[in-house]
Amino acid sequence: EPPRADDDSGIFRDEGGAAAAVGESAGPPGALSTASPMGDAERELARRAVLSACAEVSCEECRDLCDALDRRTGDGDCGTTLARGAEAIAKDVSEGRFDFSSWPAAAACLARSVQVHMGGTSGAIYNILFTAAGTSLEEAEDGRPTLVRILNALEAGLAAVQKYGGAVPGDRTLVDALVPFLNSAKTIDASSPPESVKASLLESLARAEEGAEGTKGMTDA
What we know:
Layout: H1 17-24, H2 40-58, H3 60-71, H4 78-94, H5 103-117, H6 120-139, H7 147-165, H8 175-185, H9 194-214
Helix pairs in contact: 1-6, 2-4, 3-4, 4-5, 5-6, 6-7, 7-8, 8-9
C-alpha cells in the first residue's frame, strides 16, 4: 500500500533513501544560476506569493483542521507540521535568507526549507515536489515560468511524488487534489486575456478542492 500523508514510514523519511537523494539534488541556490534572472517586479511577485501561501498554511484555522483530521488516522500533528514549515519559510523570506534570483532558485529554497523545517513525511513529500518542479523550470526555455512552464513544472513535481511514493488517485493523498487541478489547468489557453486565464485558474482550483473533498468518502482497498 502506498504511504499516505499520515504515514511516516518507508522512503518518505528524511533520514535517507529516495527522498534524501532527491532533496540533495536541489543543491545551493547558486547552483541554479543558469536560469534567466528575475526582474524586480518578478522578485516582488514571487516574494509576496510565498508569504501569502505561508500565511494561509500556518493560520490557526488551517492548522487545527488538519490536526483534527489527522487524529482520526494518525498522530494528529499534520497541521502543526505544515504550519511549522510555513512559518520557517516565511521567516527566511522576511529576513532575506531566501533566494529569489530566479524561479528555479526559489523552488530550490522551498525544497530545502520544507525538508529541514518539516521533516518526516510532509517534509520529504514537498521536498520531492519542489525539487522536481525547480528542475523542470531550470530546463525550460530561458527558465522563465510562463503559465505553461509553471504547469509543466507542477506536473513534473507530481510525477516525482508518484514515482517515489507510489501514490495514485484514490489513495487519499495530495495526488487526489493535484491531478484534477492539472487536468483542468492544462486545457487553459495561455494566450487568452488575463481575466479569462484567471477565471480558468480559479475553476481549476475548484477542481482541486473537489478532489480533496472527495477523499472523505474513500476507504482502504
